[in-house]
Amino acid sequence: MTTAPLPAAVVARAAPFPVPGAAAAAVSGALLLALTNALVAAAGPAPASADVVRVAGEHPVLTEVAVATGLLAALLLVPGTWAVAAVLARRTPRTAAAGAWLTSSAYVISVALSVETATALGFARSGADPSAYAAAEDGHAPAAMVGAYVLFGLGALVGVLVLGVAALRQRRTVPWCAGWALVLSAPVRVAGLVAGVGAGPVVASLLLAVGFAGVLLAHRPGRDQAAAVASRAAS
Q1: Could you tell me the pTM of the whole model?
Q2: How far apart are alpha carbons 67 and 52 in whole angstroms?
Q3: Are 166 and 99 spatial neighbours (Cβ–Cβ below 8 Å)?
């Protein structure tokens, strides 16, 4: 039996994610996203651009709060996603990185979509005809905004799915329920959006919070280092 100190490389791998508060940001960001989804569902469906202005005008407080919580959720989820990826990268570095890039990029893009909703709210408060907003949005919107919607959808759905696959490949170091929560969040969100069921995105975001929490709690600060010390001492 030996009590020789661990090599620096082993200690570095065992160290917690270096960004303070990023782990808490992942879970709280997902919960804020669930709140945002609930607020959007409470305001009612808005299938067309003119409906976005109409709904914003009918529910200005809900819309304003949804914009604020959506922006805050994005602010927290970007570093939070990388905190999750840092844990998963110990066994699946490429899969975790791909999932984190897709997911975090989607949340960055979501800021632009929140600003677009805020613009619709301002248009509604001005008393202008919603059809004028729809004409400008549908007929003259920059192509970049169309691309933003596509990239947001792909990133938010595929990215979380990839992170879930990475979690399931952690060889029992991460609870299986965390991986499945991440994997299932994507189809649940799609099913809710396609069926027009407002609870779908809410449940999907709650699954995201469960998945992130499961991954991060499985690798609490110092836990891996203690395991590495015990393994080395036993040898």
Answers
A1: 0.83
A2: 13
A3: yes
Ordered by start, the domain boundaries in the chain are 19-234
CB atoms within 10 A of CB 89: 18
CB atoms near residue 20 (< 10 Å): 10
Q: What separation in angstroms does the CA of 215 have from each of 29, 36, 65, 222?
A: 15, 23, 30, 15
Q: What is the pLDDT of residues 126-145, one digit of tens each?
A: 888 888 888 888 777 788 88
Tell whether the torsion through CA atoms of 173, 176, 177 and 180 is positive or negative.
positive
Instruction: Dump pLDDT digits (tens) for 71-86.
Output: 999 999 999 999 999 9
For tokens 């009590």, name the residue.
Answer: 3
Residue 18: which pLDDT band, with cuts at 50, 70 and 90?
low
Rounded to 5°, angle at Cα 177 from 194 and 232: 145
CA 97, chain centre distance (Å): 15
